[in-house]
Amino acid sequence: DGGDTWQGSGTAIWTQGMDMVGACNHLGVDVMTGHWEFTYQDTQVLKNIKAFKGEFVAQNVRVKEDALFEGSPAYDEDTGHAFKPYTMKQVNGARVAVIGQAFPYTPIANPKRFIPDWSFGIKDDDMQKLVDKIRDTEKPDLVVVLSHNGMDVDLKMASRVTGIDVIFGGHTHDAVPTPSVVKNKSGKTLVTNAGSNGKFLAVMDFDIQNKKVRDFRYRLLPVFSNLLEADRGMQAYIDNVRKPHLDKLSEKLGVADELLYRRGNFNGTFDQVICDALRAESDAEISLSPGFRWGTTVLPGQPITMEHVMDQTGTTYPETYVREMKGSDVKLILVDVCDNLYNTDPYYQHGGDM
C-alpha cells in the first residue's frame, strides 16, 4: 500500500487512524509506506504502526540528531532511520526487496509540529546506497520501491537511481494504465501509479531469469465495488467501526444537483461547495480551500450526508481563518501554489492542487 490510507474520514479522525489500521489488517496489507499517516501526533503514528500487522517501511525518514540524543525512538540508532527502510519478501520462489519511500515533503505540505523529531526528503544518494547494499548483501531477484513521491518525482528518481526494477507510486493518485519505462545508467526502471481510494488494483507479473527481469505484464484492474460481493469478515468489521457513529454519519444535509468531486488540478465541484460555504459563513469576498485529492464523489440526486462532508474535510488541523489580505498577497499565494504544481523540475513539486 502506497500510503494516505489511515486518514481521510470521520471514523479515521475519531479513532486517530486505528479504524483503518484494523481494515488494513483484515485486508492483509503486508507492506506500506506513508504520507497523511504522519498528520497524527508522532506518538499516535507509532501506536498505529505497532498495531499494524504488516511492515511500515520508509528509507527517507530519519530521527533528528538532537532528538536521538534526547532518547527519541528510532528503528536504527546508528543510521538514524525512524522506520525500517526495506523488507525482503519471498514471492513465488523469488526474493523481492521492497524499499519504502514516504512523502518527502511531509513537514512542508503538512504541519511539522506533529512530527518534530523526524526529517524527510527525497534522498537520492541514500536510496542509491541502499539499493547497492541490498543488491550486494541480499542478492534479490527483484528490487521494488513502494513510493509516495508522486508520479513526476518517481520518474525523475528512476532516471537518477540505478538498480531499481520497478517503482509502485502513490501521492498523485494517477491511474496509470501502462508503466513508464525509464532509462538510467545501468538499465531500465518501470514506474507506475494505481490511482486511489481502492478504485483500481494494479497487478504486475514478472518473468525473472538469473536475477534479471526479462519481461513483465501489467494490468490496472478497475474495482467495481457494486458488482463484487462483500467479504463477510471485512463487512462485519466496517459495520462494527461505524456503529457508534452511525447517526452522525448518516445525517442528511442536502441533495446533490450535480456531480460533486474533488480531483481537478484547478477546481472541483465539492471544493466549490466548500468555498461557497466558507464565504457565506464568514462574510468573505474570497475563500481558499486546500487542494486535497481525496474524498468520496457524490452522484447527482444522491443525498449529501455528514459522512460525505467528513470525507472531504476530516483533517487533524481543520482550523479556518478569516483575515484581510491585499490583492498582491492573494496573487503571491496562487503563484506559489502554481509553482508547487507545475515547476519544470519535479523535485520542486510538493503536491496539492489549485
Features:
354 residues, two-stranded parallel sheet, 14 strands, 20% strand, six-stranded mixed β-sheet, globular, 5'-nucleotidase,  domain 2, Purple Acid Phosphatase, chain A, domain 2, 12 helices, 2 domains
Overall structural class, as computed from helix and strand content, comes to: alpha/beta
According to CATH, the homologous superfamily of the largest domain is Metallo-dependent phosphatases
Give the number of DSSP strands: 14
Fraction of residues in helix: 25-40%
C-alpha termini separation: 26 Å
Mean pLDDT: 94
- Write down the secondary-structure element order: HHEHEEHEEHEHEHEEEEEHHEHEHH
CATH class of the largest domain: Alpha Beta
Anisotropy-based shape: globular
How many domain regions? 2
Approximately how much beta-strand content do the residues carry? Answer: 15-25%
Biggest β-sheet description: 6 strands, mixed
Which spans of ≥5 residues are poorly predicted at pLDDT below 50?
A: none
**Total of helices:** 12
User: Under CATH, the topology of the largest domain is which?
Assistant: Purple Acid Phosphatase, chain A, domain 2
Strand order of the largest sheet: 4-5-7-8-10-9
Measured on Cα atoms, how large is the radius of gyration? 21 Å
